[in-house]
């Protein structure tokens, strides 16, 4: 019985075990599209997702990634109110139309109006009477105030150029250019003020052409929740999260799946659940109507689950198995953990993933919340597993079901990764490598790479051949390091 159990065991492969075979191609890397699905309803412009870890994803990372076309998932190692504030910060960062406006009435004293402008750091206040727009007070109106001015109505600009609530972005921009104005209040058919468009926000749209935004022009962001934390899920939805990630080390826990079913009934936004590594787990999560699946049990750079618990499936096999099942139901897979080079992203997608989730590759960037440290003259940033001693003892996180137990068995380590500068530079290299891989395999889109990518299994000698060898590296390129720290 035991021998046959071993004989029936399947082979499991991970990134280093394979290479993609070059194929006939007329595809140039610069001509490919890397758009992909994160979930049933959310599309990304680059297939990169930041991991919900307390040394990777807070508001700053989420803002930067969404502007580049990916998405950040805010970690949950904090009070739900704190996490909700981070989500709100991302949602407030940019907006096509500002709807929750600060306004004054014509009777407001000029001192109060100036105080409000200073406090909220806004350069223009719409003036309303019975919700109708009657003027606008801008910095220009208050620059040279005479002593006689007491009320807003004494100096406000009364002839206000307004836009219609149904205006397209192009129409708004055209009017603002023609009339040389920075702010365009929007009114409905009865003259009620309903919002404001600012030139600053329009310029941001031009500055970040790949940014992923909701229908109000706000950046997309996700938040992680524990499997049974309905309250947190509702709080994040209220704060404006676009997607919830049910964050567990064992997504095939059947109680978790029951809880996800309940969450699906009470939450209106998309839900990604995981982590899993098998087809059966994918099937079971899909029966709970999840909108996306997070695959990866133990491949992460800071993970010790495989060593401590003896559990896991080599990541490429896990991705291929879960993707095969999820594909039939139109559910995208996020390949989570173990990605060290851009080539691993190409392999993950060719194995069936629609996006990749990154921890260590992002933790060294400016936008990650880890602490910068200096070791022997080199700069590093701290990076730790969410199942590590420090993360579990220092936070609210129960990803490994160990909170409150006082003493516990960690499944992750605490460490540091080399400092890397702006996340935009790291993402540029990662997407550049992905596009090269798409060129070599003749794949103009992520969907074709998923279909066309053909693997060859390599030996240990093949791995050695793949890396630079028989040479002493004199400098480190921005996309490759074989440093062992
Ligand atoms: P990378 O390789 O990108 O992996 O650094 C990030 C992923 O690792 C998972 N993770 C953990 N796994 N113990 C684990 O076994 C941990 O303490 C831990 N913390 C994070 C998680 O899936 C993350 O996205």
Describe the structure.
By secondary structure, this protein is an alpha/beta fold. The chain has two domains: 2-94 and 213-457, Aldolase class I (TIM Barrel); 110-198, CBS-domain. Helices cover 35% and strands 18% of the residues. It contains 19 helices and 20 strands. The chain has helices at residues 2-8, 59-68, 80-93, 110-120, 139-142, 152-155, 169-179, 199-207, 230-239, 254-266, 279-287, 305-308, 315-328, 342-350, 360-363, 389-393, 423-440, 446-452, 460-466, and strands at residues 18-20, 36-37, 43-44, 48-50, 71-74, 124-129, 132-138, 163-164, 183-187, 193-198, 222-225, 243-246, 270-276, 292-295, 333-336, 355-358, 372-375, 378-384, 414-418, 455-457. Strands 4-5-11-12-13-14-15-16 form an eight-stranded parallel barrel, surrounded by six helices. A three-stranded mixed β-sheet has the order 8-9-10. A three-stranded antiparallel β-sheet has the order 17-18-19. Helix 9 links the parallel strand 11 (222-225) and strand 12 (243-246). The longest helix is centred in the last third of the chain and has 18 residues, at 423-440. The radius of gyration is 26 Å and the shape is elongated. It binds xanthosine-5'-monophosphate. Xanthosine-5'-monophosphate is lined by residues 51, 53, 275, 296, 298, 300-303, 305, 336-339, 357-360, 385-388, 411-412. Xanthosine-5'-monophosphate (XMP) is lined by residues 51, 53, 275, 296, 298, 300-303, 305, 336-339, 357-360, 385-388, 411-412.
């Amino acid at each position: 019985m035991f021998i046959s159990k071993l004989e029936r065991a399947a082979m499991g492969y991970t990134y280093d075990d394979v290479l993609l075979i070059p194929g006939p191609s007329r595809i140039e890397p610069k001509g490919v599209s890397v758009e992909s699905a994160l979930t049933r309803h959310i599309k990304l412009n680059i297939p990169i997702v930041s991991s919900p870890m307390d040394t990777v994803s807070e508001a700053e990372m989420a803002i930067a990634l969404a502007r580049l076309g990916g998405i950040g998932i805010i970690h949950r190692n904090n009070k739900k109110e704190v996490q909700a504030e981070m989500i709100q910060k991302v949602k407030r960062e940019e907006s096509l139309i500002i709807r929750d406006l600060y306004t004054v009435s014509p009777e407001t004293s000029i001192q109060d109006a100036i105080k409000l402008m200073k406090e909220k750091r806004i350069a223009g206040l719409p003036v309303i009477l019975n919700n109708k727009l009657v003027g606008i007070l801008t910095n220009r109106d208050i620059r040279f105030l005479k002593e006689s001015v007491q009320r807003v109505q004494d100096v406000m600009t009364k002839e206000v150029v307004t836009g219609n609530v149904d205006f397209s972005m192009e129409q708004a921009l055209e009017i603002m250019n023609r009339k040389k104005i920075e702010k365009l209040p929007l009114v409905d058919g009865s003259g009620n003020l309903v919002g404001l468009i600012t030139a600053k926000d329009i310029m941001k749209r031009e500055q970040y052409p790949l940014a992923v935004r909701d229908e109000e022009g706000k950046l997309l962001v996700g938040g992680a929740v524990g499997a049974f934390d309905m309250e947190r899920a509702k709080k994040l939805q209220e704060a404006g999260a676009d997607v919830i990630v049910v964050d567990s080390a064992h997504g095939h826990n059947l109680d978790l799946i029951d809880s996800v079913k309940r969450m699906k009934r009470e939450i209106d936004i998309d839900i990604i659940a995981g982590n899993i590594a098998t087809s059966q787990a994918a099937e079971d999560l899909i029966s709970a109507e999840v909108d996306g699946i997070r695959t990866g049990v133990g491949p992460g750079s800071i993970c010790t689950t495989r060593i401590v618990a003896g559990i896991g499936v080599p990541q490429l096999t896990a991705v291929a198995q879960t993707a095969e099942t999820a594909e039939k139901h139109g559910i995208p897979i996020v390949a989570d953990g173990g990605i060290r080079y851009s080539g691993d992203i190409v392999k993950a997608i060719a194995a069936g993933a629609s996006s990749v989730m990154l921890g260590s590759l992002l933790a060294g960037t400016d936008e990650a919340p880890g602490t910068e440290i200096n070791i022997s003259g080199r700069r590093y940033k701290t990076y730790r597993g969410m199942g590590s001693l420090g993360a579990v003892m220092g936070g609210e996180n129960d990803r490994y079901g160990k909170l409150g137990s006082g003493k516990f068995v960690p499944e992750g380590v605490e460490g540091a990764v080399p400092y890397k500068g702006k996340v935009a530079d790291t993402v540029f290299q990662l997407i550049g490598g992905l596009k090269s891989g798409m060129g070599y395999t003749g794949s103009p889109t992520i969907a074709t790479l998923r279909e066309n990518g053909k693997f060859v299994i390599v030996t240990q000698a093949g791995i050695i051949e793949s890396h630079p060898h028989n040479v002493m590296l004199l400098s480190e390129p921005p996309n490759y390091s074989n440093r062992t720290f």
